[in-house]
Automatic annotation (TrEMBL):
Transmembrane segments: none
UniProt name for this protein: Pur operon repressor
Pfam families xref list: Pribosyltran (PF00156), PuR_N (PF09182)
Lineage of the organism: Bacteria, Bacillati, Bacillota, Bacilli, Bacillales
Species whose genome carries this gene: Paenibacillus thalictri
All residue ranges annotated as the Phosphoribosyltransferase domain in the record: 121-254
Length: 272
């Protein structure tokens, strides 16, 4: 790359870091890329670090030594996430979203790139300190959230299937009890999709009782995997007890009146 003016170099370096979260980048990479001295690159990184921290964009960690470099850790202040979630709660309280059985229609919200971006960034902030190998979800509505979260953690996504597919090869399947209707259902995971003893983060779009997530935990036990965290976009507060105890929720459906179509949604336990 040709030698850039400092202002242009700062912009390009910032973009380079933003699209490579949780990746250790040696200083020589920037020095060679911009044909600049390491001392100049270090000064630029100090400026970027100051702006990132001041604006609540994340941390820029510096690792010294021959194998050192810089690593960008995306973080969003909890206050900013709360403002975002408050807006989502107001959208979810719209009467026309009430579905039979007390469910809410959320597909249009989950389909918005800006919403997914904020949800992914919030989950990535909440679990940034965990040692995680991959993000796991069950098909289908949790998939966009899983990819949004994984993009900020720079991790692969593994999808648990409800039906066996020929293209998946050999699979491990288990039966589990659905928490909402108490029916026996099946979920499966390809043997090649997950290495044994992996450390995983489970994310999902909605949790009523937690039967599906509990089933995923049982399935992951077959791979000797360790669940390092569970994140749900919306949880139901209308159940006496969840099958999953240790989890983070961004929003909580605390009340639905099917007759009056009145819905109450509040921020989840992440903000407690």
């Amino acid at each position: 790359m040709k030698k850039l003016k400092r202002s242009a170099r700062l912009v390009e370096m910032t973009q380079y870091l933003l699209i490579r979260p949780h990746t250790l980048i040696p200083l020589t990479t920037f020095a060679d890329r911009y044909n600049s001295a390491k001392s100049s690159i270090s000064e630029d990184l100090a400026i970027i670090k100051e702006v990132f921290e001041a604006e609540g964009l994340g941390d820029l960690q510096t690792l010294a030594g021959a194998a050192g470099g810089v690593k960008f850790i995306p973080r969003v202040p909890k206050e900013a996430s709360l403002r975002f979630v408050d807006g989502i709660c107001r959208q979810l309280e719209q009467p026309e979203r009430v579905l039979p059985g007390g469910y809410l229609y959320m597909s249009d919200i989950i389909g918005q790139p800006l919403v997914l971006n904020e949800v992914g960034k919030t989950f990535a902030s909440a679990f940034a300190g965990k040692d995680i190998d991959c993000v796991i979800t069950v098909e289908t509505k949790g998939i966009p959230i899983a990819y949004a979260t994984a993009s900020y953690l720079n991790l692969p996504v593994v999808i648990v299937r409800r039906d066996n597919k020929v293209t998946e090869g050999s699979v491990v399947s288990i039966n589990y009890v659905s928490g909402s209707n108490k029916r026996i259902q099946t979920m499966s995971l390809a043997r090649r999709a997950l290495k044994e003893e992996s450390k995983v983060l489970i994310v999902d779009d909605f949790m009523r009782v937690g039967g599906t997530i509990h089933g995923m935990i049982d399935l992951l036990a077959e791979f000797k995997a360790t669940v390092k965290g569970v994140g749900v976009f919306v949880e139901s507060g209308e159940v006496e007890e969840h099958l999953v105890e240790d989890y983070i929720s961004l929003a909580k459906l605390s009340g639905v009146d099917a007759k009056t179509r009145q819905v109450t949604v509040v921020p989840g336990n992440y903000f407690n």
